[in-house]
Amino acid sequence: MSRTAWLAGGxxxxxxxxxxxxxxxxxxxxxxLIAALFASSLNLLVGYAGLTSLGHASFLGAAAYxxxxxxxxxxxxxxxxxxxxxxxxxxxxxxxxxxxxRATGLGFLMLTLALSQVLWGLAYRWVGVTxxxxxxxxxxxxxxxxVAIESADRFYWFALLVCLLAIGLIALFVRSPxxxxxxxxxxxxxxxxxLGFDVWLxxxxxxxxxxxxxxxxxxxxxxxxxxxxxxxLSLQASAEVLLAVIAGGSGTLAGPxxxxxxxxxxxxxxxxxxxxxxxxxxxxxxxxxxxxxxxxVPGMRRLxxxxxx
Amino acid sequence: xxxxxxxxxxxxxxTLNSLSLGGLLFLLAAGFSLIFGLMRIANLTHGSLFMLGAxxxxxxxxxxxxxxxxxxxxxxxxTAVLGGLFERLxxxxxxxxxxxxxxxxxxxxxxxxxLCLMLWGGDPLPIQTxxxxxxxxxxxxxxxxxxxxxxxxxxxxxxxxxxxxxERTRLGAMIRAGVDDMPMARAVGIPVSRxxxxxxxxxxxxxxxxxxIGGPILxxxxxxxxxxxxxALIVVILGGVGSLAGAFIGSFLIxxxxxxxxxxxxxxxxxxxxxxxxxxxAFRPTGLFGRMGA
Amino acid sequence: xxxxxxxxxxxxxxxxxSAALGFSAMSRAQSGPIRIGLMTxxxxxxxxxxxxxERGLIMYLKARDYTLAGRKVELFxxxxxxxxxxxxxKLQELVEKNRIHLMIxxxxxxxxxxxxxxxxxxxxxxxxxxxxxxMTQRKPNPWFVRGTSTSSQCAHPxxxxxxxxxxxxxxxxxxxDIAYGHEMVAGFQRVFEDNGGRIVxxxxxxxxxxxxxxxxxxxxxxxxxxxxxxxxxxxFRYLRQFNEYGLRGKVQVVGGMTAxxxxxxxxxxxxxxxxxxxxxxxxxxxxxxxxxxxADFRKEFKYDPGFYAAATHLEASVLETALQTVGGRIEDKxxxxxxxxxxxxxxxxxxxxxxxxxNVVGDVFIRQVERKDGRLVNTVQYTYPAVSQFWTYAPQAFxxxxxxxxxxxxxxYLES
Lengths: 309, 294, 416
Fold this sequence. Notes:
A: 309 residues, C: 416 residues, Rossmann fold, 13 helices, globular
């Protein structure tokens, strides 16, 4: 079968899922979609810019908190709160990127971690705005084009559409000339500089764009959960999405999606049957590193090629 | 705030507190710095090794090891062996794959955390302060825990020991050569592979022993790993990666900033650890004493 | 641990088979097994209490052969890891996949608040362990019943005891800088100051503080005592470091309901002896249900049950009483909720009833740590009978104030 046929079949199956799956599985699938978009946004940095960020939860959390606060405190409707929340998230990413990109490598990782911990601390401490560890609650889901998405199947379809659109745009971005230049800054930063590219600017723009898509994931997150707690900004949340990207295979489009689906599956489904699910998750990561060190998707591709030839 | 600063009792006690926290942080961070300096591996299991050390210390002392120092030695050796195995069996194959290293070191820290919960349960476990330094020191009207002063002294001894090891021994000369220029070190016949294992063992052992030495103050509890790892990272980044002097000064600097900061501006207690680091790195990306790009 | 886990598997095995038998034997409309969901924490830093919650509940169900009000009971356990978003997903799983009739839990306030609206939309009767004040006060959830305590419900009597019985005038308070800590010390401060005392120092320390040295060094020694509002391992570390600084005997210590829980005590030494705490439970309570429960629990797990084990055991008693009232028909939600909210039961904590907001009215005990048979226990010194979440204040007036927080009531007597 051709690649296009596979793709079409897969899409059809995704859209048809609510016809066969029950409520619980649909909700699980919605969470996988949100995680997949979140991981894809981080992949822009980790995979295509070669910058390992351990603070990406900042942007999912910032969008979720902003959207929640705007509707609770200012009473804004979703059509107004969503773009403002995204704008605020982009602004946060612009500032954080400006600071974090003073360094690369471990320094960058630490600065992203530190900046996200500052946001996490704010969420705990700035009770007047965030209600501390009580979190913000009493929220609603939007009604895009007048269609309520309160039920599990409708929300799933909505999230699926948003994620497909977003990941499609991310794919276009990666394949654009800008994307090629970005990969250049990852592989040959000095040469790119010598060729007249502004390496720093390319990285910073990518950081902001990654923040934007994480913000979109954050909006889906808050609409899905209708609740946000400081744990959305925690180191654990940042680590989890980073692990998903690397385990799936950074620098590929499918890798982070597969990684995110796997992490959500282990965390939210397998954990009902395996008491030591944290250990299992650790061993899965260990196994991936040992046997498919480049990540699940590229690793499997390599194995398949080897079997074929 | 001013009233507190003009209070001599406050100043003296908080200075001692800063020093003791700094000493503890140095025991934690020295190993991390050493490993990163030579091997370029951000060992995110470092907090787990610290916690594992603390739990092993609890069990050793329960099993009849006569004192804390012996327990710290034995626990340090145990975590050093575990660290060495991890380096040989797993990290070795990931040289140059920094993302793989992040994945596997975080993955192993998940395993260690869950393993500790399984083996030692979820309750906080105490490590008794050695009898000889259990009662607080009372000098000139000030009361201060004697054990904390021992921790400061120990940190200084360890710092001197590491300094001598690195600056004055053959092994140290090889390590320095490796840190400065790895291909050159390889070319002149330094057994880099064995060197890596030795340094990783040393770093892991320091973390484990640090967990036991810190035990009388911190205890062993689930979550100790996640509490300590960011501290190690902050110290090392602030001081400059791969610089022992940087780790030493970074530890005490963080000790002071945290202790005085949380007392003087309690509203910032949640973020006080990260703000100075952000400021320093934003203006000096290699850290205060870093010699090379981070 | 090893023994406990094996017994757990046996227990769930029994539940599974009996449930399967029950299902095939009975008609499917209304009389299958009653499916209970326990939302707890079995991994991460909160696991200690969460595992005890599971043990306490299983002990109750086992003692009744997994039969309540004549119907078989099936138990499903969800582990949230203490992360609110995960708690929500786990609850969805319990409701949508396991079709539970009722939830016991969750442990932490964050998780309880995260599932608040879901509980409403799923119309799910809930017996909570989490202490978040407003869930039974200004924003009561009609499906929410709490047999344990709000954050401040035990802090009020502790303050009363300090002011009236101990005749203390000047005190300091310290707690974790989270809502639970804020609510507890706020309640303590209010009652203490209403009875003529003054809170002269108030510390709120971040959750992940490895070293309390900086806070301990600031503590005044010319005060009558300090109130500890910690939960989990933080109180344990604070107290050990407090002693390290030679403050034991210089400054008296009292604590809230989770500060010196049995789970913490079993790893403490003489440094804890003499400390007073207030809680709605003690393993030492001599009432008949608790004498059986505490002895059985100690026999099986080799340690005393504490706050969390007693919490689920108590909630199960409340559940059974309500089920008996409605003849086991938990499916008739309106009737069942009505029965649940009007339960009067005698449980391991003694007699309980509920106010109109779904929160418990029950005894609160002032307990003192003592050494008995070689282990540390919380001996009951004094009993405050039938304590309400509103203490002695009129509910209407109480609710007209803002919810307890870091800034309310304002601390007027702080000394720098």
